[in-house]
Amino acid sequence: MKQPYHRGGVILISLAAAGTAQAQPVPVNLNTWTAESYLSVPGFPNGVWNVSPGGNSVTQAQNGQPTFFYSDFNALNTEVSGKVRANGSGDDDFIGFALGFQPGDSTNNTADYLLVDWKRGTQDFNFGGNSTPGSTAFAGLAVSLVTGIPTADEFWGHVDFPQNPNGGLTQLARGTTLGSTGWVIGQEYEFDFVFTPTNLQVFVDGNLELNINGTFNNGRLAFYNFSQANVTYSAFEVKDIPPEPPTSTPEPSTILGLGVLGFGAFCQRKLSQGKKSKQDN
Question: For residue 13, with 0-12 CB atoms within 10 Å meaning exposed, 13-18 middle and 19 or more buried, which class applies?
């Protein structure tokens, strides 16, 4: 179980005693989600996402191009949790998620979203069929900014090649403990995401792995695979979290703290004045 999330260095705690209602997680029905893939290259077809009859899980079946399965809700000011497992396969490529993804971003020159991906093993590769050279994908968990329309080589190495003026990737951070550790075949991992306009936190099995600040666009949550077949995402839930307060308004806890300090200083002054009056008498 993950700890209460932080925003701007302040721990946010639900004040039930003050009448603040805490949103409850809602199960996600994956039958309402949509698949989208980047253009295929030789040997790497588009993704195929097969949803279970009840809509509780989805399995991506192809070893192919970067492919997404995106939600019917926007991800900002939400907390999302669920499980992912790469099933019996000898492959060692990418599983992951996107936040702020917009429908049509695979062909959108102004796309701007966050990609959280996890590679099992380090590997050099050149996909060919495009203007960019090959790159190295390093084992481990990372978060990157995706802009425009990257090539497969740019997705692979988290790079922004000058040969492709239409887009690229910029790696922002690697996991605290999983930054150079790959996922394990057949092992199920629980992911938790807390996503606000200025902060993204990613927990894996209850451990905070990624925590980045910035200015983030709204958009969908998406599951992500690249060159990795037979990956299952299941048991996802979403709940709303309180919007970030205006930057000019202090946190209630700060106001309360200042009030307590001010009252303490007032009492101390009155006590000192009383002692001084007795001494003068």
Answer: exposed
Q: What is the pTM of this model?
A: 0.81
pLDDT along the chain (281 residues), means of 10: 46 35 88 95 90 97 96 98 90 97 98 98 90 95 98 97 97 98 97 98 98 98 97 98 73 46 44 43 43
Residue 242 near residue 37, CB atoms below 8 Å = no
For 242-256, give the DSSP string.
PPPPPTTSPPHHHHH
- DSSP conformation class of 229: -
Looking at residue 252, its pLDDT comes to 54
Phi-psi region of 83 (alpha: psi -120 to 50; beta: other; left: phi over 0): beta
**CA–CA separation, 1 vs 67, rounded Å?**
29
Q: Which tokens belong to 34?
A: 């949509």
Token readout for 161 is 């090649």
Helix, coil or strand: residue 94: strand
CB-based burial label for 216 (10 Å; 0-12, 13-18, 19+):
buried
* Angstrom distance (rounded) from CA 171 to CA 157: 9
CA angle 174, 178, 179 (to 5 degrees): 30
CA 51 to chain centre: 22
Half-sphere exposure of 12 (CA within 13 A, CB side): 14
